[in-house]
Design a protein that fits this description.
Largest sheet: 5 strands, antiparallel
Helix content: 10-25%
CATH architecture of the largest domain: 2-Layer Sandwich
CATH class of the largest domain: Alpha Beta
CATH topology of the largest domain: Alpha-Beta Plaits
Oligomer: single chain
Strand content: 35-45%
Shape: elongated
Number of strands: 9
Length: 185
């Protein structure tokens, strides 16, 4: 599960404000399983608190803050939210928009195939590329031989290791989630 790191500033509010907002807006948040890997209070100057949290994907940090305020009996809401990392990416890899030049972009740009290299991948033979380009239905065994079927989403790569498609294998057949036509030209 990918980990997300956030720097958060919260403002403490009255619990009644939350109750009124929930009543007026009809906000109903169903519980969902999430994992909080770490939670660090970085500063506290009433009525504001800052903290850093590392959490699983799917965590609604605004809801987390609201729940913490509710548990403390004072209510809380976000006044700022800054994502400092997601999965294997963090701010040390970021470039400010006003610093981007063509040379820097060429040096730092991450290919789509590399950006999602946490997914299993399989390289397609040159002979199968026309079938992919024409939308032919294919079996996993036709492109991968005896390689075991992956579970979940899989990357299909061109012989040049460009991202060709995202697929799922269901009953031995490829189910295309997305095909990247640029890789077929």
């Amino acid at each position: 599960m990918a980990e997300t790191t956030e720097d958060i500033t919260i403002g403490i509010t009255l619990a009644i404000d939350r109750a009124i907002a929930n009543f007026i807006l009809g906000v109903d948040r169903a519980p969902r399983p999430v994992r909080i890997h770490s939670f660090e209070l970085t500063s506290f100057e009433p009525p504001r608190a800052r903290f850093s949290v590392a959490c699983s994907k799917g965590t609604y940090v605004r809801t987390l803050v609201s729940d913490i305020g509710s548990d403390l009996g004072c209510g809380a809401h976000l006044t700022a939210l800054r994502r400092t990392g997601s999965g294997r990416f963090d701010l040390s890899q970021a470039v400010a928009a006003d610093e981007i030049t063509p040379a820097l972009a060429a040096q730092r740009l991450i290919s789509p195939a590399a950006a999602i290299d946490h997914l299993p991948g399989h390289t397609i033979s040159p002979e199968k590329l026309p079938a992919m380009a024409n939308g032919q239905r294919l079996l996993w065994s036709e492109i991968a031989g005896k390689t075991p079927e992956p579970t979940g989403t899989c990357r299909l790569l061109t012989p040049a290791l460009e991202l060709l498609a995202l697929v799922r294998v269901e009953g031995g057949r490829l189910r295309f989630d997305r095909v990247f036509r640029y890789a077929l030209t």
